[in-house]
Amino acid sequence: PRPRSHRSLLCLASVACLGLAGFAVFSVPQLKSALVRAPTRCASLAHRGTQISRSSSVKAAGYDGGIPLDPTLISADLPYNAKKEGFTNAIERASRNRDLKAVRLLEQARVEVMEKSANGGSFGKWEEERAAMALRRRQGQMDMSIKRREKEDQLVAEMKSQFNFDMEARDMYGMTVDMQRIVDRASDTLIESLVGPRFDEGPKLITMRKEIDPMPWWDTISEHGFDLRTIQVLKDKLQLGKVVVLMEDPSELMGANTDGLTIGRLGEFTDFHDAHLTFCISPTMRSEDSFRRLQDAQHYSGNDIVVISGDWGLPSDTESKRVRAVAKEHFFGGLNAVSFVMGPVKLVPEVGGEAYPLPQWLLDAGYKAAGNVAITGNSGTGKSSLNNALRGLKPRDTGAAAVGVKETTIDPHGYDYEPAGKDMRLWDLPGAGTPKFPLHSYMRKMGIKYFDEVIIASAGRFTETDLGLMDELRLHGIPFIALRTKVDLEIRNAMDDTGGNEMEVIQRIRDDIKKNSLLPDERIFMVSVRRPDDYDFRALQDYIINSLHRGVDVKLAKALNRKLEVQEYYNAVTG
């Protein structure tokens, strides 16, 4: 294809020929004026095409147009006040004035700036400003992370001052301290409904539904343990005598603690003599025939009825509507529906970052009831060797993590960290930034934001992968520490290259880590697995133990601090 300037000349020549052919239409002076302007216009277009071509080559060489062009970087004076108004406005004004000389000068200056930008030499102040903004952003995230950590510690201290702060502690009914709080609140709410105002002097029906996200340490509680304990606490608070509990199948309560309760089968004969209150757990009330059993129980007992987790069918179902109508007629003392809702513990602060789920392998490992510290970083930094050394194992010992010069850890693996106690795990994660685990998907696959603390290990200066991991952890408010492995080799190499004694080299390394990680000194460690008695190895062990215990304490404190939402509806039933 012909160059742009040639095409422009041909175009203008055609216009000139048409103008001659249409001499009858155009006047001679107008035609002369057009022919006089044609060479100048062609030259301008040709020069413009050359400039565009140069601009395109400059962009291909490295300038991406992401930063505004700064005319002040040109030392010479520029026409049309370009240094103040910018290249675009100045060139537009010069074009409107048909000042071709100024247009050429401004175009040349703009291309010069773009060339310098592509070579990285003349936008230093923009780069410095961007770097300063990034540093301020990281520092702000770090400050917020430290504040969140302080708030969590304050919450733990507050909960410890109020409760027996031990998830292993159980009362005589097998209830943990957080379950005791829920039971206490549920019983108080039912009491308020029982002693509250009635529509008439007659029996009252109270229905209760619960949606409570369980914690892993509730595994010692039977299926109906929560319901039974709520009834027992209510009985004690009201100082009631006989309390009857009806079930579709009483054998479901086999092995459960039913002290002080009379157990019967719904629809069959039960001794209601001297009973003060009747409960019914998980009945099916979808039809009038099934509901008649509840009517009979109330008739023989003469008491109010409390139904816990009953199945009343869909409100839109015709049969269910009839059941509800019959219930309102029979229990003319009133219908009260109470719902208890307690959502799951917030595992991570909602402060931003990509929302990704807790990995199934971490959930299956008992994440919620255990302390979890992860070791991550680039591949080949000695993470697995560090894991073994922290647990006092050698590479060939049973239970040791695989080590080698190539990528040996290909799946996350949690190891029990016995020095910290039961349910404390040290996780060996695959190296980040490898073809198998690129950084952009590494965070999600490893569930990095769900760990109680993360150790970012490096065998030398931090890489972009290390800094990316730190940014992610800051963004989600997850505590992390910076760890320099193989520090003995680094110290020896530095002393050979630059001289100085060991302490000076250590301080230089520590200052470099602090500058890049923005961490305080107490969260920076330098170790050598070959020399566990030197450097920060013992301090690191103590720190990990404290972090694991802190992680468990924070989870328990958040569980204790969960809000139990109580919803009450009158003249209605709920299951």
Short note summarizing the structure:
47% of the residues lie in helices and 13% in strands. With 575 residues, it is of the alpha/beta class.
Element-level helix/strand string:
HHHHHHHEHEEEHEHEHEHEEHEHEHHEHE
Extract low-pLDDT stretches: 1-13, 15-67
End-to-end separation in angstroms reads 79 Å
| Mean residue pLDDT | 80
**What share of residues are in beta strands?**
5-15%
How many beta strands in the DSSP annotation?
A: 13
The global form is: elongated
Cα gyration radius (Å): 38 Å
Major sheet: 7 strands, mixed
Class computed from helices, strands and strand pairing: alpha/beta
Please list the strands of the largest sheet in the order they lie side by side.
3-2-4-5-1-6-13
Q: Work out the helix count.
A: 17
Binned, the helix content reads 40-55%
Task: Give the helix/strand layout.
Layout: H1 4-21, H2 28-61, H3 82-85, H4 87-96, H5 100-118, H6 124-162, H7 177-195, E1 204-212, H8 225-238, E2 242-247, E3 262-265, E4 275-281, H9 288-301, E5 305-308, H10 318-330, E6 334-342, H11 360-364, E7 371-377, H12 383-390, E8 413-416, E9 424-428, H13 439-446, E10 453-458, H14 464-476, E11 480-484, H15 487-498, H16 502-517, E12 524-526, H17 537-560, E13 565-570
Parallel strand pairs: 1-5, 1-6, 2-3, 2-4, 4-5, 7-9, 7-10, 10-11, 11-12
Antiparallel strand pairs: 6-13, 8-9
Give a written overview of the molecule.
By secondary structure, the chain is an alpha/beta fold. It has helices at 4-21, 28-61, 82-85, 87-96, 100-118, 124-162, 177-195, 225-238, 288-301, 318-330, 360-364, 383-390, 439-446, 464-476, 487-498, 502-517, 537-560, and strands at residues 204-212, 242-247, 262-265, 275-281, 305-308, 334-342, 371-377, 413-416, 424-428, 453-458, 480-484, 524-526, 565-570. The strands form 2 sheets. It has a 7-stranded mixed sheet with strand order 3-2-4-5-1-6-13. Strands 8-9-7-10-11-12 form a 6-stranded mixed sheet, sandwiched between helices. Helix 6 (124-162) crosses helix 14 (464-476). It starts with a helix and ends in a 5-residue tail after the last strand. The relative contact order is 0.09. Mean pLDDT is 80; it is low at 1-13 and 15-67.
